[in-house]
Amino acid sequence: MIRHAKDELLAAALHVARDQGLRQLSFGRVAKQAGTNDRTVVYYFPSKEVLVSEVLLAMSRELESRLSAVGDERRRDHRDLLEVAWPVLAHPDADAVFALFFEASGLAAAGVAPYETVVPALVSAWLKWAEARLGGTPTSRRHEAEAAVALIDGLLLFRQLMGADAADRAARRLARG
Asked: What is the dihedral of CA 8, 128, 21, 29, to 10 degrees?
């Protein structure tokens, strides 16, 4: 039997999720992608909930890495943050991550475990990231972060559904106010 590291199996799980969606993520599909058997996958990910959670957290780390290009400079409001974050987030390389995020969000809204707990934690982390890049009082930063995340996530979903050009036009319009 070929031994596989957890990172290799997680990469295989991400590949399966991107190609087939989160609903199709299974021990068997991950094992096949990695060239091993189900038992090896179960050794590192003892339940489907653990496997899904790890995939979602890996997506979150990928997003955090992408967002590092935005920098740490404080922005005056949600529109200003949109203006600097949109070119980084609205990139073809990020589309697969956001497709999975929106699939997970739909499953969370439907009350499906583990999405119902993992996705709100991801959104909270996203809010914290935005809040750290906005000026003002703690309360105003929180409100602006909520507006920024709602605006950016809405635009990213619009990009998934209507295409990059339509989303870019909408983002430009919304950034102007």
From this structure: 20
